[in-house]
Amino acid sequence: MDPVITAPELPDVNVGVAGGGDFELFFGANVEPEKEMAYILMMATDCIQDFNIKTLYPYNEFLANRKLGGGGWVRKLSANKDIVVQELMRRDPNAKPNKSNRSCEELLRLFKPLTDSRDIDFVVKKELEVRQKLESMLGELNTKRVSHDVKEKAPKRPKIEKKVGLADAAANVNLRLKLDDSSASIAMEAAEKAARDNDFKVTIAIVNAEGVPMLVKRLEGANPHSFDLAIAKAKTSCLFQRNSSQLQDFPDISRGGVPLMANGVCMGGVGVSGDKQPNCEKVAYAAVDRLVEDAKQESDLKAPEVPPMPPPNTPSTTV
After folding, report:
1. Residue 262 belongs to what H/E stretch?
2. Which of 19, 189, 217, 259 is the least crowded, having the fewest Cβ atoms under 10 Å away?
């Protein structure tokens, strides 16, 4: 009689561990497309520290200018009671919320905390996608109305090359503008001062000529996602040797990236993110301006002294 061969017993495996979390699966199958943005921002309020669409850019811009891009932004960005109750029931099927006499804020307090790191990572990722989409949309809208809205109009500034270029080529040779650890710290201090003086809650990034970050600082109150965006702006402006506002082929990169140019050579770049685009660019220019001014002071900008011409020879007279 042939022996009976049986398959080895397989260990118990949680099939959900390798895939998405419970919320990610629920979100893809149950949330209607028109409610996705409000749902994710509601979840971000629960997952991300100090997240508030009323104060964070670019959400606050759309809430303050409700007619932008077709309007309806309070409805698009804010979760209504139906969305809150839907998530409340997902977390606790036995919950019996009474939404008739409770506000959204009161219902949100009934949430059980998320414990699955996959769910939290998914919410953070989706919120970043929403943020980038709205920043890109806001940039396009500002471009269209720039001739009609003086406040949003980008300030006219000379190119960095012109800013550091002096009277002639000989003087340019003497301009010793460099970006090392010391000068990067000086630039960071200038940018940080400009941000604090204007109460801009931003992240500031400084990269070298290869686009490698040298210094990155997220000021208190700046959104965590501004960290990666500031680095991206600095690297992009450095590698393309242009302001990030001029890179129309990269819609996800908005204003706030400025290259550091000297004598036609890119020394590095500064990127700022977390506030309105003109404000981010203002902080980036503060860093560049400081390095340029220091370079001017350190450089020998005086033209070489020309020795006085000898007096013309006078014919000798003989007596």
Report:
1. strand 257-262
2. 19
Count of all residues that appear for the chain in the document: 319
pTM: 0.44
8 Å CB contact between 130 and 53? no
Is residue 58 reached through a cis peptide bond, with omega within 30 degrees of 0 on the bond before it?
yes
Rounded mean pLDDT, 91-118 = 83
Residue keyed to tokens 């921002």: 41
pLDDT digits (tens, 9 = 90+) for 132-161: 988 888 777 766 655 444 444 444 444 433
262 forms beta bridges with 265
Mean pLDDT, residues 297-317 taken together: 54
Distance CA 25, CA 209 (A): 43
Distances (CA, A) of 18 to 21, 25, 120, 188: 9, 13, 15, 42
Confidence (pLDDT) at 108: 82
Whether the CB-CB separation of 141 and 67 falls below 8 Å is answered with no
Quote the pLDDT of residue 114. 84
Q: Tell me the one-letter amino acid at 200.
A: F
